[in-house]
Specification:
Elements (H helix, E strand, L loop, with lengths): L1 H5 L9 H4 L5 H9 L2 H11 L5 H8 L3 H21 L15
Helix pairs in contact: 3-6, 4-5, 4-6, 5-6
């Protein structure tokens, strides 16, 4: 996954379905809408459990900026998934993306 973040342009196109084929359509669409840096920060933190210092190193930014990318990704996903027709989660799972 760290290799994917180094070339996070790969994470900015609509190829997430090929990378993560088991995702539901709603989550897939929401991930595709994130910026490449937001998607990379989210995937490295949530799937690889990397510390923000390492995420920052992979993205070539400060640790604070990596935290901001992650936070914005979580905020955007939460908002988009709540508005979409194919909801992944609803009330009761608000903390799923924190």
């Amino acid at each position: 996954m760290a290799e994917l973040a180094r070339d996070f342009s790969h994470l900015s196109d609509s190829s997430t379905q090929e990378t993560f084929p088991g995702l539901g359509d709603g989550l897939q669409h929401a991930l595709d809408r994130l910026t490449s840096r937001q998607r990379a920060a989210l995937l490295l933190r949530e799937l690889e459990d990397l510390p923000f210092a390492e995420i920052a190193s992979n993205l070539g930014c400060s640790e604070a900026t990596a935290r901001v990318h992650h936070h914005r990704a979580c905020t955007n996903l939460r908002q988009w998934l709540k508005q979409g027709d194919d909801l992944i989660f609803g009330t009761g799972a608000e903390g799923a993306l924190s």
